[in-house]
Amino acid sequence: VQLQASGGGLVQPGGSLRLSCAPSASIYRVNVMGWYRQAPGKQRESVATITSGGNIDSSDWDRFTISGDTASAVVELQMNNLRPEDTAVYYCYFQVFSSLYDYRKGRRKEFWGQGTQVTVSS
Description:
The structure is a single chain. The chain is mainly β. The protein has one helix at about 100-105, and strands spanning about 5, 10, 15-25, 30-40, 45-50, 55-60, 65-70, 75-80, 90-95, 110, 115-120. It is elongated.
């Protein structure tokens, strides 16, 4: 399974971008979906996540809104009022159960997208 992300690009400060991510094949059950980012010289950090139980977390509730449905396995990230410090490679992330057997055993697998560049600059 590959995660296919889209929506990155160059935007001016104060602008908006919407990222989208979906898997290339069907997944038995998605447990967690989310977005992480990594700026040059920095560690990868969580931007926003959503769980199958509907729990949502965001690093900036005023500017970053995650949406999606673990049943359909599509996750999107709406980013508003972007700042130069938001410049980074953004990665989508899925934590899944690949089969009923894995689900019953509690065996989770993690998948990362290839990353999409977001550059905020005037």
